[in-house]
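hey so i finally got around to running both of the ones u sent me last week. sorry it took forever, my laptop kept dying halfway thru and i had to restart like 3 times lol. anyway pasting them below in the order u listed, first the sequence line then the structure token line for each. didnt double check formatting much so if smth looks off just lmk and ill redo it

first one:
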Amino acid sequence: LGILALSPCGRVLSIDSRRRRVRPLPALEEMSPFARWPVRLLICFFALVYLSAAYYKYLAGGHAWLNGYTLQYYLLQDGLRWKSPAGLWLAGQHGLAVVSSVVTVFFEAFFFLVVFFPALLAVAWPIGFGMHLGILTLMSAGFFEYLLLYLALLPWSAVLRWARDQRGAGRPQTR
């Protein structure tokens, strides 16, 4: 988060810039050639974290980590500790645990491709955000910071531009 605070990307989409402006929406067309580096650095950060996680899962359990039983164990352990009914329910669903294990390890092992092919972020973003939201919800594990960092990876200017266009499309045309 410190990287984002020190970067020039807050020039338009920050609380400070919002207070300096009177306009209702930021200047969405304004682009800085340096605003992309903190996002690229965050992607590299996630790639290293996920590669490390996949490596240690493989080192600790090999292919057995993909059998679903390991995930069921952790879901059951954390579900009982934190009294999470959703975590306890998922701990009883072996098929979903296998699918979740495979998707998680596959995602962690291949997220680094986003570094070389940034267009893959459109696929990786919902998977990663959903994975960390699921971990937080089902297991009460402290990955809240990752959710905030994922929000920083959203193309906010495109999202705000889309919202502005949708709001304008709902108004009747007057001449």
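and the second one:
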Amino acid sequence: MIGMKKYSLPVLINIFLSGLIFLPQQLGAQNKDSIQLQKLTDWVTNQQYSFIAQSVNPLSGRQRQLDSQYDLKVSKEQVVADLPYFGIAYFSPVNPSDAGIHFTSKTFEYSLTKRKKDGWNVLVKSKDLNDQQDLNLTIYSNGKATLQVTSNRRQAISFNGYIIAPDKEKTDTH
């Protein structure tokens, strides 16, 4: 028994010291995640964020990867969309440059509900556009998000991406 204690004591000391080395790293990572979640919560509840689209999923067609040039900006004053569109349009646009999802809505409903497991569901309904746009945004606590856009004039389309602060540039990577 005494010989076993001699051999296990150095092992226990090494385990203890390893814990002291890695514990601050783990606590730092948890603290960083907590701060990021608090920031995200503030952005979503205060209606001050941008959704950056990374990929698009049209109903007819395949998923396409996008660059960081496409976004949806949400504030209490307005919702601004600059997103591509791939799919079937029920009405042709008068101007061919209007082929994407490009609009600014200053009169809209903003509905926020907490998801049971993770994040929030956001519904934005424009009220001042010729073609009413309904935006269903699912935001997860890690900052990732999906956006589904429905309209009376086109097939629905969805996007995958992430949420950033409204004052960050589109070129930020997540």
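quick thing i noticed on the 2nd:
Residues 170-174 have pLDDT under 50 and may be disordered.
anyway thats it, ttyl
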